Please model this.
Amino acid sequence: MAKSASVYARIDPDLKEQAEAILAALGIPTSNAIDMFFKQIVLKKGLPFEVRLPYEMPLNMAALTEEELNEEIEKGYADILAGRTKPLEQAVAEMRKDFKI
Model:
């Protein structure tokens, strides 16, 4: 199929430069990379990567004051009462994925 549609996007110049340098090192023209990205969106029926908020580091419980520790315990207890829990196996699998262990 002939390529005749255009995509116009305004992006950060530094981001564009960095991405183009990597693509050049890979020997992939920018237009081909965008085409590959769009094909993956169609194949996956969504973005071809996970989109989520940045990971927050776990609390260092030893560094908390007694008051802060009690607040965290209360939050955990409220989560339990509200049913915001998950099976241990799921929690461990998520931690392994998040921490790459």
Residues 66-81 form the longest helix (16 residues). The chain has a mean pLDDT of 91. The chain has two domains: 13-44, 61-99.
